Amino acid sequence: MQSTIFVITLVLMAVVGWLFWRAVSAVNGKPAGTNINKRRTQLIWGMVIAGVLISVGSMREWPYAGASEKPVVVNVVGGQWWWEIDKESLPLHTEIEFRVTSEDVNHGMGIFNEDLQLLAQVQGMPGYVNKLYYTFDKPGTYQVLCLEFCGVAHHDMINEFEVVAAE
Amino acid sequence: MMEQTYPYKPQAGAVKLTMLLGGVVFLLMMVFGLALRATQGGLFEIDPAIFYQIMTAHGAGMVGSAALTGAAIMWYFVGRYVNLNAAIYWVFLGLFLIGVALILGSIFYGEFGGGWTFLFPLPAISGGAWDVEAAVAFCFGYLFIGVGFLLIYLDMGYRIAINYDGFLGGLGWRFAWSGNQELAPPPTIIAAASVIVFNSIGIVFGAMVLVASIINLLFPSFVVDPLMAKNAIYFFGHVFINATIYMAVVAVYEIIPEYTGKPWKTTRVFALAWVAIVIFVQAVYFHHLLQDAVMPDWALALGQIVSYASGIPLMAVTTFSLCVYVKGSGLKWDLTSSLLVLGVAGWTLGSIPATIDGMVAVNRLMHNTQWVPGHFHTYLLLGEVAMAFGFSAWLVRGKEQGIRSGLERFAFLSYALGGAGFVLVFLWSGASSIPRRWAIHLESWQFQDRIGTFFAAVAILGSLLIVSRYTLRLMRKGEE
Ligand code: HEM
Ligand SMILES: [Cu+2]
Q1: Nearest C-alpha neighbor of B79 from the set B13, B147, B165
Q2: B302-334 pLDDT, tens per residue?
Q3: pTM listed for this prediction
Q4: Which ligand is located closest to the Cα atom of residue B23?
Q5: CATH 1.20.210.10 fits B12-479, yes or no
Q6: Does residue B437 line the site of ligand 1, with CB under 6 A?
């Protein structure tokens, strides 16, 4: 998923960068014609229409709400500088509802797979419980890394849990 | 090329000094940044506590210098249209320096390492790394700087209101509404008035949360709601950092016409774009809270939608207009024109990964990874700073345009290409799920860190040459 995002970003940057370069490097070329304001209007409307489509398309799936009636609840508490996870092994192919909070400052619970690829994250904040829904498709050991700067040992805040096939 | 007359003459001395100060601090902070990147790459070893202190200094120092140079640019050019008060500028600069002294003291004497965002309640709960006094000094430092900004904004806003038939006249909102060209203020005035509106609001919110933090630090029984504090901090932080670029872009409006021979015109589209900017800049900060599931759904959706919308005035108005003005204009490339055009390019291109990160579906995978320093270094290092360097080069320009020595060419290319490599590696690292703000990196991440370090060094070499050239020319001019 991340590599797709990266490639799309690079392509968009390259296209915009190339159009920009083509215009500004033509200092001795032909000046813009009289239809340029029409072009600008088209660009604005094009961006507006694309924006509506992208917004609707990309937010149809709303990750802040769970899909299943009875998810498995896992409570996670962050503190300087540890993670407490109240279950060590979680079931495969089952929606998990992580309820994340903090004992002191803001932390960020990032869930990483065995290749250290980030799968999902949510903030852990004192006084609040943030919910994160996730369904694991692969058994294995997953790591929790802190993704919100929380002081001198922020980078040491690592814990793990297992995902196992349900019996 | 084009000789245009203005009602007033800006006060160059104070601005030249500010740009010197800004340039030197930019360089110093870049070296700090290099130390951070090299440490992540394992090329260098610093204790994590020191790493986070340097990170705090780099963040606060860079944001502060961007704001300082942006404000100097805006104040200089607004001074062409209204009669500004130099005494107030000196007070602003004095308050700024007091703020800097407090911040530096809190970091390097008080060992404060809570990040430039001072996210509540981290300043108060450091796990023993720093004392309450250091955090209080840090917050007071910000307050001094904020008060200084409010002062010059007040002065500029007042003068603009007098000269342009009320503040709404200066904002260009009357013109945008009616389309009556006689009511159209110059682009610089519209930009300045707009920044004054949104950045003053941003600073007031910042000040409120700073004061609340200070009271909480001194009297812990005074409780602050962490979610409210987070909203206020990101609102302030987002608005303030964006304002640096919106102030600096005035240099493009004012200097590029000297190269193209065509004045930057206030059209209705231009005025409407700035109306949109005033609204979008304030409404967009929710994209910083996409991982706070307790936020209301509408706020998170708004964060994504406004992130995208913010790109429209930028791309379709600022960037598009620059392209139209430059194409076929006979513009001559020298250090000034190259840097100003680069500044718009960096800003535009950096907004792409930023907007993509503003999407709910993407943010879950990219938030607080190095994707984030990837996009903001693009529009800051290659955007705001490029505009500030371009403006500085213009301040010490020679009699003729279009002269570019081999060394100047080398300096520009090393800055631009080094900077581009540096930011692209950050984006790559973000896409590789490497967290941001980690003092110690896993071995598997360090290959990328080292490439990033190399590019950073190249960019810094270019910056060193650009700032040295400015300094030497400034001294030579002073002697004349
Ligand atoms: C070549 C020059 C620069 C280098 C080598 C550099 C390096 C870095 C590094 C390594 C980080 C920390 C990345 C991480 O979170 O893992 C960082 C963060 C940051 N940089 Fe830079 N940087 C440079 C230029 C700039 C400029 C020009 C600006 C702004 C005008 C800037 C503003 C920031 C800010 C605001 C942060 C965030 C600090 C935080 O997370 O608390 N940097 N930089
Ligand atoms: Cu942390």
Answers
A1: B13
A2: 999 999 999 999 999 999 999 999 999 999 999
A3: 0.96
A4: 1
A5: yes
A6: yes
